[in-house]
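Entry 0007
Protein: EamA domain-containing protein
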Amino acid sequence: MVWIILSILAGFFVALSDALNKKYISKEGFVKMTVSRTLGAFPFLFPLFLYFLLEKTSYLYFTPDFIVNTLILLFLEIIATLFYMKGIEISPLSASLPFLSFTPIFIIFTGFFILGERVSVPGALGIFLIVTGAYLIHLPRINQGILAPLKGIWEERGGLFLLVTAFIYGITSVLGKRGLLLSDPLFFASFYFSLLSFTTPLILKFIYKIEILSFLKKNFRGIILVGGTQALMCFCHMLALSLIETAYMIALKRTSIFFAVGLGWLFFKERHIGLRLGASILMFIGILIIAFWK
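Output (structure tokens):
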């Protein structure tokens, strides 16, 4: 029961962090939104990593396999976060974040092509519900033709960026699971999230020539709010992972799509909230079917 509460809290805090990031930082662009999401969480996450570093013989985890796995994961996560932030920068939360629901679909298909795993009947039903939900998000366009909602996915570019994010998450979820198996769930989560929070701003500073200090000074309040809620998500994420299998935890964490719809209305007065909430419910049911009954 505790893992259920923690997983849902993780979903709430990630949606709240995204809403705060859009509200306070989006005027600075998606690259700085990425810096805000990662660097802002570092002061909250790093002490936990130090605790595990001092309390456990964690240096034994740093095998060649662990290091290579972490570096690949870090590279993909940075790319995914840039697409993620670009998506919520340019599109309503209620029209973009639900597309993260496609992650389990991508996992099913990568499992088919890489491992030869076949899609079960419940898995196919889950896919159908998620795709139907994606169609319904843009149903108001139906007066332009039956295919117009599908065109809406293309035209509402934020949803496309979140689809790319969901695809990458389909890979990183496997690498993250491997990282847990090569070490310890709580240690890996604290180490990895701290590493991500520290290295992402440095890499983006080098690539995009960002003035980190001036950005921090100008947007300190917003960055702390975004980073603090992101860190709370990480804490709940870590604790839930220590209690239950990854697939189940991630499935319930996707309650974030409901919170995103509600926060989109509360913060930004986004339109078609009732319809998008219904679409999100369908997508979430699809996620649960894939996670628990595939």
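Curator remark: The chain is about 80% helix and 0% strand. Residues 29 and 89 are 7 Å apart (CA to CA).
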